[in-house]
Design goal:
alpha/beta; Rossmann fold; 2 domains; seven-stranded mixed β-sheet; binds 6-O-phosphono-beta-D-fructofuranose
């Protein structure tokens, strides 16, 4: 059989566990099938650059240390859509043909894309344009990739965020304060909801459920009546103000990113609750550091399975974690689709059952189906 070559890239915001997935793909492809594996640097950019910016992996490059290493050794980008690539003179240029030509120049037979829903959307369009067989591996701390219970990076972000609550609780108690922890998650509240439950929050605010300042203040007053002099609030960065404005910060190049809703809440609640408030914005620490055990396991399982899919000629698929096992789903059901928190799912109902204020639809739905 003719020698086969596959390419692999990481795209979108980084997270912990990416290197574990790269390692698994290289191991399976070389050991299992005798293929050659090319790592493409900086997402789609590596195939658009001339000379190509790629590295050929061999087994000496993929040691166990990669399991422990955060970030991505290939580099990544979360801007620069090849179909509308921003040039230094301010114009937008379609560079998709350069990507496809780069793929052909390397003589690749298929591409493994490790990315979130946005990256999958762009990369699947690129692959469709160039008739490139693609398999996706879901990653993102936001855990909003459709069809999978877990994306790589989410578990580590939860470890970091719940440890932050563990550290905030004692200082909140010492100073009788309301501590507000703002976590990432973009438009969804998976990180906030899980962190808040695991860390004993009194209030959890997520973009999927409307809240009122009065509802938060009432819960904090109730905590005080229950005999506790401090409270913990977890807010997802994508939550809006009470009147529906999103809270963002402008970065260089005019890019807006979520940030600041914690300060907004502190300011408004300061007028309503009889306690000092302080805000911690966790930011990018949620993306870095040593991957959790769960991320290492999921990433390894995803990587092996992705290569097996290519071997079976089953491309245009995305690997997913469902009910404790790896499965594969059509790329079209994942690319550009966001998986939000179910406002009446297990975790939201658990939070309600624990007396946590999670917004105005705050009645407790039974967590067991009725007989
Ligand atoms: O999608 C991952 C994520 O970390 C979001 O949670 C966050 O809103 C965003 O990326 C931050 O992007 P950047 O790294 O460009 O600041």
């Amino acid at each position: 059989m003719a020698e086969r070559r596959i390419g692999i890239l990481t795209s979108g915001g980084d997270c912990a566990g990416l290197n574990a997935a790269l390692r698994a793909v290289v191991h399976r492809a070389i050991r299992g099938y005798g293929w050659r594996v090319f790592g493409i640097r900086d997402g789609s950019l590596g195939l658009m650059k001339r000379p190509l910016d790629v590295v050929e992996f061999d087994l000496s490059l993929v040691t166990g240390d990669m399991l422990r290493q955060g970030g991505t050794i290939l580099g990544t980008i979360n801007k620069g859509d090849p179909f509308a690539y921003p040039m230094p003179d301010g114009t937008m240029v379609d560079r998709s043909a350069e990507f496809v030509a780069g793929y052909r120049q390397l003589g690749l037979d298929a591409l493994v894309v490790i990315g979130g829903d946005g990256s999958m959307r762009i990369l699947s369009k690129l692959c469709h344009t160039g008739c490139i067989p693609m398999v996706g591996i879901p990653k993102t701390i936001d855990n909003d990739v459709a069809q999978t219970d877990y994306a790589i990076g989410y578990s580590t972000a939860l470890v970091v965020a719940s440890e932050a609550l563990d550290r905030l609780a004692p200082t909140a108690a010492s100073h009788h304060r309301v501590m507000i922890l703002e976590v990432m998650g973009r438009d969804v509240g998976h990180i906030a909801l899980s962190t808040g439950i695991a860390g004993g929050a009194d209030v959890i605010l997520i973009p999927e459920i409307h809240y009122s300042l009065e509802g938060i203040a009432d819960r904090i007053a109730e905590v005080r009546r229950e005999g506790r002099n401090h409270a913990l609030v977890v807010v997802a960065e994508g939550c809006r103000t009470e009147t529906g404005q999103s809270v963002t910060q402008l970065h260089e190049g005019g890019e807006a990113r979520y940030g600041g809703v914690g300060q907004y809440l502190a300011h408004r609640l300061g007028e309503m609750v009889d306690a000092e408030t302080r805000v911690t914005v966790l930011g990018h620490v949620q993306r870095g550091g040593m991957p959790s055990m769960r991320d290492r396991l999921i990433a390894s399982a995803f990587g092996v399975y992705a290569v097996d899919l290519i071997a079976q000629g089953r491309t245009d698929r995305v690997v997913a974690w469902q009910h404790g096992a790896v499965v594969d789903v059509p790329l079209s059901e994942v690319a550009g689709v966001t998986r939000a928190v179910d406002p009446y799912g297990t975790l939201a109902n658990t939070a309600r059952g624990l007396g946590i204020y999670i917004g105005d639809a705050n009645f407790c739905v039974p967590t067991l189906p009725t007989a």
